[in-house]
């Protein structure tokens, strides 16, 4: 298996765009990120109309968000597109987007959480995208922010974390894919769904009831999405909630139960998701995962361009 096509690496002076594909935000919240990108990365930053738009909880109507994202995809002078934030809404517009120009002139698309829907769709077209902090979350963790640069600017990257008591040891290699568990479950059977066979999956979530985490894992298992993985990376399950009648298991215990019958390595506690630490992961790139009692190492294939 090969890596999916990687968009060209950024160069100093390139133009990057920020759009809001999902929930609305206060434009002031992303000003520190804009200043950082201009100063530290040396790129020109343009901000789409959706960043200042509002329609109920969304960053403008579906039409506004579609038009904004489409414009940035079709503008070949724009070399990367950041989603300003997540929330909810990208699934509502993804089928309206024409990726024809993008396929001829690919560019990095960056975000996480609700943007999982966009990542999966881009992978279905054969291209990599970057699951990473968004402008609204840039300042939460300095190291997480710094993990974006190696992928956008074309250098290598490898991560090492301490073991977790729930880990299952082993070694795996394959394209890496994943994102928010809720979105991954909702994408099953949609045009944006992709095969996970032979891949390393990563997952995370926030503010979900524990019984619903169980239900989503059952959905993925019944759909055959878990049985042919090469490896599994379990990130943060932030602010998981109990019902009045407790479910009784932690999020990690729920995941472990549903993958117990499979033999691939499983890493728990990886810094991806809605906690402060949210390390960048290039969806669609070949990675190797080593899980042992001493450490977990995730290494990404270097792209030569």
TrEMBL record:
The keyword Protease applies. The active site is at 113 (nucleophile), 204 (charge relay system), 274 (charge relay system). InterPro entries: Carboxypeptidase_A_C_sf, Class_I_gatase-like, LdcA_N, Peptidase_S66_N, Peptidase_S66C, S66_fam. Keywords: Carboxypeptidase, Hydrolase, Protease, Serine protease. One of its GO terms (biological process) is proteolysis. Residues 16-132 form the LD-carboxypeptidase N-terminal domain. It comes from the Bacteria. Residues 173-288 form the LD-carboxypeptidase C-terminal domain. Belongs to the peptidase S66 family. PANTHER family: MURAMOYLTETRAPEPTIDE CARBOXYPEPTIDASE, MUREIN TETRAPEPTIDE CARBOXYPEPTIDASE. This is LD-carboxypeptidase.
């Amino acid at each position: 298996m090969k890596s999916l096509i990687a968009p060209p690496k950024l160069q100093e002076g390139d133009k990057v765009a920020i759009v809001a594909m999902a929930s609305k935000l206060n434009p002031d919240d992303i000003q520190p990120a804009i200043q950082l990108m201009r100063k530290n990365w040396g790129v020109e930053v343009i901000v789409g109309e959706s960043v200042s738009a509002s329609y109920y909880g969304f960053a403008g109507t579906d039409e506004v968000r579609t038009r904004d994202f489409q414009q940035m995809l079709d503008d070949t002078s724009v070399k990367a597109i950041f989603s300003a934030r997540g929330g909810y809404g990208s699934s509502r517009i993804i089928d309206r987007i024409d990726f024809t120009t993008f396929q001829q002139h690919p560019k990095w698309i960056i975000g996480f959480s609700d943007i999982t829907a966009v990542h999966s769709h881009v992978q279905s077209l054969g291209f990599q995208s970057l699951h990473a902090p968004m402008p609204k979350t840039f300042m939460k963790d300095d190291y997480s922010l710094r993990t974006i640069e190696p992928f956008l600017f074309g250098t290598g990257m490898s991560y090492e974390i301490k073991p977790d008591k729930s880990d299952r040891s082993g070694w795996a290699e394959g394209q890496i894919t994943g994102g928010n568990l809720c979105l991954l479950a909702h994408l099953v059977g949609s045009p944006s769904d992709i095969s996970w066979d032979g891949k390393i999956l990563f997952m995370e979530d926030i503010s979900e009831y524990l019984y619903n985490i169980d239900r989503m894992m059952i959905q993925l298992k019944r759909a055959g999405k878990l049985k042919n993985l090469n490896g599994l990376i379990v990130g943060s399950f932030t602010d998981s909630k109990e019902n009045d009648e407790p479910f009784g298991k932690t999020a990690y215990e729920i995941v472990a139960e549903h993958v117990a019958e499979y033999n691939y390595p499983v890493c728990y506690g990886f810094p991806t998701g809605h906690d402060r630490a949210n390390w960048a992961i290039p969806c669609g790139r070949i990675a190797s995962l080593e899980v042992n009692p001493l450490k977990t190492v995730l290494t990404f294939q270097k792209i030569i361009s």
